[in-house]
Amino acid sequence: MHADYFLKERDGTVINVVNRAKICPTPGSEKAAIYSTPEFEAPLGSHQWLNAGAYVARIDGGRDPARPSVVISVYRAQ
Asked: What are phi and psi of 2, to 5 degrees?
């Protein structure tokens, strides 16, 4: 899967996110895990540190069936 979207930070900074994901079936489970490798394209300034990191994320479905959504938990590799 491939997604390209924008995040708007509280300070108004807009950050482009390019997120590539893979569905990873779990043996014995009906639900497959989805993992991704997001890349951030932040402008120079207080959020530019995002540009230099390596990240991995887990994507889960939202909790409210009346409002379809996803929850993306992002972790920076050290």
From this structure: -140, 135
Q: Please, what is the end-to-end C-alpha distance for the chain in angstroms?
A: 25
Positions of E strands within the chain: 2-8, 14-24, 33-41, 55-61, 70-76
64 residue type, one letter: D
CA trace torsion 67, 58, 42, 47 (10° rounding): 100
Q: How many CA atoms lie within 13 A of 14 on its CB side?
A: 2
- Local mean pLDDT, 10-residue blocks, the chain (78 residues): 95 97 88 93 96 94 89 93
> Which residue type, as a one-letter code, is found at position 5?
Y
Cα–Cα distance, 57 to 59 (Å, whole number)? 7
How many Cα atoms occupy the beta-carbon half-sphere of 49 within 13 Å?
3
